[in-house]
Specification:
The protein has 160 residues and is mainly α. The chain has 2 domains: 30 residues; 128 residues, no CATH class. It contains 7 helices and 2 strands. A two-stranded antiparallel ribbon has the order 1-2. A hairpin with a 3-residue loop joins strand 1 and strand 2. This is Putative membrane protein.
């Protein structure tokens, strides 16, 4: 190979390299902050799963027979599972946003939305105070329904 061929190959390689960089920039998904659309998706996901589970007599029976220790453990396990999912799942378009340095923003929003939607679903369906007639039973049922609504909340947000 002579010098001219080597220079032509070098230019072609540089051209290919610059085109690959352009393609990589085009294909790269920019991570986005939590926004109003994410908030609506979390609400929608929570509603989709909260209402069917809130209307389920098995959930009422399980929550009626739960102790507060079981309810507390269920709530802690739900928060821990949500934290692990948000922290270690490779959801490509989520930008990490923490409150107080270590609490993921999506954990708080998803958990609060799920708790509120779970409580509202029991109230809207008339299950509380119609069927569930004590406040402690209501709280335990909200915690149990939240286990499922948080899956819908974070799942729909992650699926987009």
């Amino acid at each position: 190979m002579d010098r001219k061929e080597i220079n032509e190959l070098r230019q072609e390689i540089e051209s290919i390299d610059s085109r690959l960089k352009e393609i990589a920039e085009t294909l790269s998904v920019s991570k986005k902050n939590f926004n109003f659309n994410d908030f609506i998706q979390e609400i929608t996901g929570a509603v989709i799963l909260a209402f069917p589970f809130a209307a389920n007599a098995d959930i009422w029976e399980i929550s009626k027979n739960m102790t507060f220790y079981h309810a507390a453990f269920t709530f802690i396990a739900t928060v821990l599972g949500l934290f692990i999912f948000i922290r270690y799942a490779n959801v490509g378009n989520w930008k990490t946003q923490n409150l107080a340095g270590f609490i993921p923003l999506r954990l708080l929003t998803s958990l609060i939305i799920s708790l509120v939607i779970s409580a509202l679903s029991l109230l809207i369906l008339g299950i509380y105070p119609g069927i569930i007639n004590t406040f402690s039973w209501f709280i335990k049922t909200v915690i149990l329904v939240t286990v499922f609504s948080v899956i819908g909340s974070i799942g729909l947000d992650a699926a987009k």
